[in-house]
Amino acid sequence: MDDIVCKFGGSSVAEARQIRKIEAIIRSDPRRRYIVVSAPGKRSSQDEKITDLLYTCQSLAAQGKSYEQPFQAVGNRYLQIDRELETGSEIRGWLEELRRQLDSGASADLAASRGEYLCARLLAAHLKAEFVDSAEIIQLDRNDTVAESSYRRTAEKLAGSGLYVIPGFYGSDSHGQIKTFSRGGSDITGALVAKALNAREYENWTDVSGLLRADPRIVRDPQPMAAVTYREIRELSYMGAKVLHEEAILPVYELKIPIHIRNTDRPEDPGTVISAERNVQVQPIAGVAGRSGLGLIYLEKFLLRKHPRYRSKVLEILASHGVDWEWERWGIDSLLLLVPEKQLEEKGELLRGVIAEELDPDHLEILGNMAVIAVVGEGLSNRPDITLTVLQRLSQRDIRLRLIEQGSSKISALFVVQAEQFHRAVQTIHDAID
Amino acid sequence: MDDIVCKFGGSSVAEARQIRKIEAIIRSDPRRRYIVVSAPGKRSSQDEKITDLLYTCQSLAAQGKSYEQPFQAVGNRYLQIDRELETGSEIRGWLEELRRQLDSGASADLAASRGEYLCARLLAAHLKAEFVDSAEIIQLDRNDTVAESSYRRTAEKLAGSGLYVIPGFYGSDSHGQIKTFSRGGSDITGALVAKALNAREYENWTDVSGLLRADPRIVRDPQPMAAVTYREIRELSYMGAKVLHEEAILPVYELKIPIHIRNTDRPEDPGTVISAERNVQVQPIAGVAGRSGLGLIYLEKFLLRKHPRYRSKVLEILASHGVDWEWERWGIDSLLLLVPEKQLEEKGELLRGVIAEELDPDHLEILGNMAVIAVVGEGLSNRPDITLTVLQRLSQRDIRLRLIEQGSSKISALFVVQAEQFHRAVQTIHDAID
Question: Who among A302, A334, A406 is closest to B230 (CB)?
């Protein structure tokens, strides 16, 4: 269908002024008929997060203590928005209802979900739109798995021709009790609604003008990506980029519904479109991502490849010491593993002893302070010059690569560097691909 | 100890003229006291291989047929050498003994072993050296495993101060029956003797002036390596270089006894020393090796890394279709496997169907005509410029790399190319590292 699902994040509904912006956005395109909202976000660093305040209320209520102070803080946020927007809503009644719920043993999930619930209620009143409670459409099974029936129910509930507002972040369990998402929050709700409706597009409105080509804490002034594919996002995300949670991508990925990341404060900016395909001529590389906090285990053993059980022995030793490996790379008579540095700090010496004793390697290195970096782009495999340029620039800047790999994925090249050189390497790669 | 074990290959004992050369070599250094010999090799392409003739004799004898013709061919070779060298040996008696053995049901192993046996007998007579039968010193258990007692027995038997000649290629089993090596031949005997004696050096005399830095069938005029380490040899060998069989390296590797590959026809040439360490300043890269005949399976699956059982499912499918994977490289949501091309030719289409059906990948490539190339060198990890130069040259010559990897082994960089570009890639890399 031709409609658009819009999800507005916390900053987009933080106050009346922001809500007027999203109203303008919604009114400017009649296809924007399904609005998913987060709870109002912090307006400044002084603000406490509404969800946290609600958890506090629930916890105090459960202990039989007064929750008046945090409750007032929550209530005032909504009352102020309501007043400034002159919604004429029943906000006082909804707050009283919440108070009754807290007094009669509301669960933490129910309490927390009210942040989104009240926000959606208010917005629906303001927009004269229909409010649809997520608890009635989204059912979560164990592990936050969305029950298939949710999609049918959502489509039925949203079948009218009007404008709908739906709270993000929660659904209900098989007993009808409110259940919040353990991760990914309202972004997931938006994706589920988009999938249920087979929407034309899933607009995800935030406070940035799209996803950036590199981490702005590392790279000076990285530009947003105009377009990026689902799998590029997935690789960037795995390698440390802060992007949508993958569970917020999977539902729309299945139907190849594009996700459009946009900025509520700058709706004229093009934002970033996440979709199944993109024009790689314009920009072969989507971006660069990386993370430090890794350790490395490297061992050599003559004729290792002739002993197939050696591999399982290595992995068993790691498992029995609670060390997870993230990457496993076998050479001919050698093995390189990347593991969480934290685990090495605790167990590195012990592990060194056990490996030396049980596996008798010819050479063993256990090192912390490593970082991994990925250059990700659908155009990478057809542009060998890019990898070459990246390697040249890294070499010119004396960045030593402990691992170079390209080809295990067609769309990324991987580099392992010392943590001390991590930021410089990311900046260098970013400049090389720009 | 300070002595040298010398192994002379088939070409070094092929005729009297060659044996005079090895005599000069042996006499020129009094430390050369342990001489291991192969059977006389072919003098020209017309010659039949002595071992093959002996197998034919045994086979005919076992069928009750006349083996006179091949037997004469064998006998004449030894008689001619004996005559030209004027050894004064009992060669006619030894040949008669072999005839009796064939007539009384000699095993194929016994018959085949007589090539080396008679050669060692003759040489011992010529050099006035002591002949020691390998059957009395080397005991082979199942799978050609050398019984530990062999080393003690060898050391005892060779404890004198004289010159010893020992036939290569065989030992005896636990019942005292002759047993030939299934692979690696006389090179292994030399290595076992060197280990038993903890020799100063294991000289392996052949018809080439050392191991070459690249395959001479691919590269124009590759130079010999002056020095190479055991692990470099192992990686080059695994990647397709024709070098010593690893079982001929392992015994001396354990005691770090250097192997010196030398040319009987050009004893003044420095040859190649294989040892535990070498000076990488002189030559950071040992050589380049590669092989074609590989196929590739590449698949992508969104969120693959989140499903740990996917890996075992892929490998189970391959195993159940009799496809062996040689290299396994996991990306984030992708997997690259290198497999024998032959197996893909037979089962590629079937496999494509099964993988598509059972694993539902987003993308699947099954390709033949791939080749893998390794640049191997102890100096590689400290010389990032070398990899860069190799990549630049490959790019200049339009060689497309399906996989680049450096770091899973510290001493090699791996490249996967299309088979059509294999020779050009090897030549290019050889020129780049030279």
Answer: A302
User: B277 and chain A: CB distance < 8 Å anywhere?
Assistant: no
> Strands A327-330, A272-275: parallel, antiparallel or unpaired by DSSP?
unpaired
CA angle B130, B132, B138 (to 5 degrees): 155
Helices (H), B158-213: 185-197
- The set of residues, in sequence order, having a beta carbon less than 8 Å from that of B162 and lying 6+ positions away, is B33, B129, B130
On chain A, the residues whose CB falls within 8 A of the CB of B409 are 300, 331-334
Q: What is the ipTM of this complex?
A: 0.88
- When pLDDT is cut at 50, 70 and 90, the band that residue A283 belongs to is very high
Chain A residue with minimal CA distance to B383?
Answer: A400
Chain B neighbors of A307, CB-CB under 8 A = none
Cα four-point dihedral sign B239, B240, B241, B244 = positive
pLDDT > 80? residue A308: no
Q: Identify the residue among B233, B298, B328, B405 best suited for mutation to test binding to A, counting A beta carbons within 10 A and taking the highest.
A: B405
Residues 6+ apart with CB under 8 A from B278: B227, B228, B229, B378
The Cα-based distances of A103 to A59, A74, A161, A175 in angstroms read: 11, 16, 38, 21
Contacts of B362 in chain A (CB under 8 A): 231
Coil, helix or strand at residue A83:
helix
Say whether residue B129 is in contact with chain A using an 8 A CB cutoff.
no
**Cα A283 vs. chain centroid, distance in angstroms?**
24
Question: Are the beta carbons of A50 and A40 closer than 8 angstroms?
Answer: yes
Residues in chain A with CB shorter than 8 Å from the CB of B330 are 327-328, 408
Q: Taking each helix axis from N to C terminus, what angle separates A91-103 and A50-62, rounded to the nearest 10 degrees?
A: 40
Quote the CA–CA distance of A75 and A83 in Å, as a whole number.
12
Whether residue B282 lies within 8 A of chain A, CB to CB, comes out as: no
Tens-place pLDDT, residues B21-39: 999 999 999 999 999 999 9
Q: A52 touching B, CB under 8 A? A: no
- Among the listed residues B384, B381, B390, the one whose alpha carbon sits nearest the alpha carbon of residue B427: B390
The pLDDT value given to residue B166: 98
A25-53 tens-digit pLDDT: 999 999 999 999 999 999 999 999 999 99
Using the Cβ of A328 and the Cβ atoms of chain B, whether some distance falls under 8 Å is answered with yes
The DSSP code for B145 is P
Q: Which residue type, as a one-letter code, is found at position B7?
A: K
Neighbours of A312 (CB within 10 A): 10
Cβ-nearest to A250 among B231, B303, B405: B303
Model pTM score: 0.90
B283-334 pLDDT, tens digit each: 999 999 999 999 999 999 988 887 878 888 998 999 999 888 888 898 889 9
List of chain B residues whose C-beta atoms are within 8 Å of the C-beta of residue A306: 246
Q: Which of B108-127 are b and which e, b meaning 16 or more Cβ less than 10 Å from the residue's Cβ?
A: ebbbbbbbbbbbbbbbbbbb
pLDDT band at A309 (very low <50, low <70, confident <90, very high): confident
Q: Residue A206's pLDDT is what?
A: 95
CA distances in angstroms from B232 to A337, B277, B356, listed in the order given? 21, 10, 40
CA distances from A96 to A60, A99, A118, A134, A169 (A): 17, 5, 12, 20, 22
Nearest to B293 by CA among B248, B331, B344: B344
* B239 near A CB under 8 A: yes
Per the document, the length of chain B is: 434
Interface test with B, best of A238, A332, A401, A412 (most B CBs within 10 A): A332
Cβ separation of B334 and A234 shorter than 8 Å?
no
Q: Do B405 and A405 touch (CB under 8 A)?
A: yes
B207 DSSP assignment: S
